[in-house]
Specification:
alpha+beta; five-stranded antiparallel β-sheet; 8 strands; 29% strand; binds nickel (II) ion
Amino acid sequence: MAQREILRFGDKRLREHSEEVTVFDEELWELLDDMHETMAAADGIGLAAPQVGVAKRVVVIDLGDDTGKIELINPVITAMRGKQLEPEGCLSYPKKRGVVKRPAKIKAKAFDRYGKLMVYKAGGLLARAFCHEIDHLNGILYKDKVIEWTEDEEDAE
Ligand code: NI
């Protein structure tokens, strides 16, 4: 495992539309392992592959609770309802936070690292993390959606 460089807002690679993963091989596993290590070292709760310069539809999430480590390959949100307005941050834009409107609850499907289809239900912070990270795969950054900047450095993602 190795830490990778996290790209910062302004880097054009963060605006690319990432490609679907078609091969679930050791290269993918290495990417996932490196993403977990990179995210943990940066004290993050979510990281998308384009943030480490890899334009593939790969996400890792770890809220640091008993949900455990989540790995999403080619994730798709299949249902959403309600709304929540909470501050979020991004490892590509350290020390900034802004309020973003997200669905209160989501359902999603994604493959795991072995190519097995998984189904997820999420609410609260986990729903926000899914939405935020999947946005990254489409070149969308949370700053595009911020309603109000809070600049609260605590608990920054
Ligand atoms: Ni982000």
